[in-house]
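Q: I have 300 residues here and want to know how they pack in 3D. Can you give me a structure?
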Amino acid sequence: MQDIQTSTNTNAAVSLDTLYARAEVWRGRMSRPAAAALNTGFSALDQALHNGGWPANGLVELLCASPCPQSLRLLLPVLANQQDGLLVLANPPARPQASTLKQAGIHSANLLVMRSHDHPTLLRACRETAASGAASVLVVWLPEGTDSPANLRRLHMAAQQGRCLLIALRSANQVQHASPAPLRLVLRASPPAHLEIEIVKQPGGWGGQRLTLALLPERLTWPFAATADMPAPQANKGSTKTENTSSVPAFRDPDSRFGYRPAPRSSISETITPRQSQGTVLSELYSSTQSPTHNLSLPL
């Protein structure tokens, strides 16, 4: 009985090999290993992406309404982790804040900001920078009319050549147009500090995933308490001295927790002398606490 079963298995194996050798039979190959991925810094986004993060190189598209400052906050983790080369910001809509980048762990020595009012010059600079091999991540805000499929394809090939992650921010109106980018995300800001993401296209599988990310810690999204609900400070009973505040304009503190009170005008004017340079005068004016909130440095 055992001999009969062994012969049957041998005949089945031989017949299967014979089928593999026939020309009309197509034999599938082993699946390729997953490409290297860069951690996005958000576990929910890593799980939604089939490769487990941003691609190591090539073109990535972020489609959002301009200027979308939340997009840069989304990219802060990957910028902080890829500092073995230059971190390039091309054509940003505003000047990056050095304190925010420093809090995210980004060294200013690795940061390069490129601007050009000439669109062909901007595209050429991005292609050459991405293909040079000196840049780890390049983020470009593409102006209207420069994001044609041909230009995007050149940017993608240059990023692959230089092994650079090139992230292009485009208008959300371009979501229905074809693109050579393997990964495309649609970003929608959701108050107070959340970002809705729709994965339109991604390598390794189908798109269509939707998720919401919290860009700030929960404690920073709590609304400030109203000043009217806080008790007014009580005056000292033993003090009988009255101050003349007629020269100081009235000021209502929008949030008394900051303990802000404007400095008298005399103290500001005394620090400015005709011998000081213009830069010193401006630094003195901007260093004075004129706003209770603009001088705050919130952690990421």
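Q: Anything worth noting?
A: The radius of gyration is 30 Å. The first strand starts at residue 37 and ends at 38.
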